[in-house]
Design brief:
Length: about 130
Amino acid sequence: MTPLVPRAWTHGPGTHGPWAHGPWAPGPWTPGPVAAGSVPVGAWQAAALVLLAVAFPVCLWAAGRGSAVRRLVGLCLAGTVVGAVLLVLPMAYGRPAYQDLALVLAVISPAGVLVFTRFAGPRPPSGDG
């Protein structure tokens, strides 16, 4: 008895249809030439990796140790680093429209730090007698 295998597993992409065989069939994909003066995609990915591997652990260290002010600075710096990563990654993948997310984070991050400061700070003495 033959095992039941889904059709998607037995046929790869481009193995059926009117243009799957013959001289008109698409050849293997090859990357196009890099335009003169442009930065290769690998450089943008390397920049994001450096930000995530070097700067973000420093932010986590600062947010996890020390006084309340030092932790707050680490939290604020982490928001800045994430914003920078969100500006670099869309360039790496050729999706500049995704940079809007970094702009939204740039507006929300300081507000989040202020809210965190408000709720984590010392409580004023109550007037109850």
